[in-house]
Amino acid sequence: MKFLKADGCSIPQHLVHDGMIMGHLCDPVRSNRLKDTAARMLGAEAKDGQSDLKLAYKNGGWDFRTIPVDHPAYWVYSALDTVLTSRVVEKLWKGTQPYRYAYEIEMAFIHVLRDAEISGMNVDVPYVRRAASKYEEVKGRLEAYLFDVYGLVKPGSDAQVIALLQRLGATLTHRTDRGNISVDNEVLMSLKGQFPVAGVIQEYRRASYLLSSFFWKLQELVDSSGAVHPSTKPVGARTGRTSVTDPPLQTVPRGRVVRDAFVAREGHMLISADYSGMELRAMAGDANEETMIAAFERGDDVHTWTAAQIYSIPLEQVTRQQRDIAKNSGFAKIYGAGVETFSLTAGISMEEGAAFLDKYDELFPGVKIWQGELVHKVMQTRKGHEWGWAETPFGRHLSIEPGEEYKAPNYRIQGGCAEAAKRRAIALDAAGLGEFFRLFVHDEFILEVPTEYVDEVLARTIEIMRDDQTFPRLPLVAEGETVVRWGDKYSKEKNGLLDVDHPNYELEAAV
Questions:
Q1: 30-84 tens-digit pLDDT
Q2: How far apart (Å, rounded) are the C-alpha atoms in residues 458 and 172?
Q3: Average pLDDT over residues 304-318
Q4: What is the pTM (predicted TM-score) of this model?
Q5: For residue 271, what is the enclosing H or E element?
Q6: Coil, strand or helix: which one is 55?
Q7: Do the domains at 125-258+496-510 and 280-411 have one common CATH topology?
Q8: Which of 2.60.40.10, 1.20.1060.10, 3.40.50.1000, 1.20.1300.10 is the CATH number of 125-258+496-510?
Q9: N or C end: fewer C-beta atoms under 10 angstroms in the chain?
């Protein structure tokens, strides 16, 4: 649709169907790529054209751009795509009917995304170049330091980092989902107080990630008008959440360092509107947890209020660390994290973590009851089936593997919040604001509006984003502000480049 509309042909929404959306609704676990889905539904021979084309590439030294257009493998592969799509969609359509409302949401949403992607986000190219230069310098300096002092050749290698930390006496117990020793950011964060090199490795990885995922990538992607056109996959996760690639803005680090690269076009301003405590409000409402609901309704900062109750101190005495621990505990409940993961994320001992979660359960007993009920429901749905499933507020089934029923609260909340945000994006479009829509990242909408209309559009956007249907007990509400640069919403923070201007950067503190 993007390709055709860019060439002047716009297909009416009611004439469009999408087999990938159908495939996700029918089976959100397995790949919904065309060839994979066709092989499952029609037989393994559905991939024959793909195999023949790969063989032709190998024998001829071609790729998709250079293979002769009259080569049999080329036109058989290409023609087969339309046949497979038609055959697969015929089968998927029947399976989609129980999720018809969810399907209609997704189909309306992709039209909003299409127009946003065509418009794109304007980029401050000189800033991007300065940022790339700065982080290249930082990366090189950190790499040299780690080699000279610790003999670490590849700071990006988990195996080498593990060997170094163990040689220095670190005990590494945290594991990845596959059972391997983990040295992710949370592990390094917990170690750097005792082993300063862990902090240096963190900074090296941060610089490497910012360069490869954003500052180098943005220079590759920016078009002649100075804009990039991020690609948003409407069902990028099993829960129905979106994902953004080219660049991967769903993983943009908190703060302004990357966001400062995006600036409004001349005569315009950006509106950044995001939901306030979206997932925690959803949990409180879905669990009918009256104590937490009351805190939200009073307008309290729930994380600060929770910390004050658990530590038995006045609100004004709550420290940043105590608030962060309370915040992590709330998300631990949503994500089904255990004591070890919560403690590691919060940066506290296992004993402290266990004690905090016990007090959390006493303060918010409805949350624990709600968790247990959702897990029980998933186990009930497994009867007679290979897998069970969690159900979103609008009836979408999200499959859960045996033994991982603890994920049910996360799936329901994430899936429900995704549905709420998509429905509100559709409402914004219906209200005539779709032409201003530029980007959707998690629970944040970015609009670009002519300066003379920006206050009016901001007020209307906040009004439309309010959702009191998905989790009726506690409405989801939004906050917004107008900025020239996306990073300006973090105006209390230093510019992302300035925080590395000290000549020794993190090295002095680390040593």
A1: 888 899 999 999 999 888 888 889 999 999 999 989 999 999 999 888 889 999 9
A2: 48
A3: 96
A4: 0.89
A5: strand 268-275
A6: helix
A7: no
A8: 1.20.1060.10
A9: C
Give the Cα separation of 426 and 449 in Å (integer): 18
Question: Which one-letter amino acid corresponds to residue 411?
Answer: Y
Superfamily (CATH H level) for 280-411: 5' to 3' exonuclease, C-terminal subdomain (1.10.150.20)
Q: How far apart are CA 135 and CA 500, in angstroms?
A: 8
The secondary structure of 144-193 as a DSSP string is HHHHHHH--S-TT-HHHHHHHHHHTT-----B-TTSPBP--HHHHHHHTT
Per-residue pLDDT reduced to its tens digit, 107-134:
999 999 999 999 999 999 999 999 999 9
Q: How many residues does the chain have?
A: 511
Q: How many CB atoms lie within 10 A of CB 243?
A: 17
Q: What is the crossing angle of helices 302-311 and 350-363, to 10°?
A: 110
Q: How far apart are CA 187 and CA 507, in angstroms?
A: 19
Rounded-to-integer distance, Cα 178 and Cα 416, Å? 28
Q: pLDDT (tens digit, 9 = 90+) per residue, 470-487?
A: 999 999 999 999 999 999
CA-closest candidate to residue 418, choices 457, 459, 461, 467: 467
> Which sign does the torsion angle of CA 153, 159, 161, 167 carry?
negative
φ and ψ at residue 45, rounded to 5 degrees: -65, -10
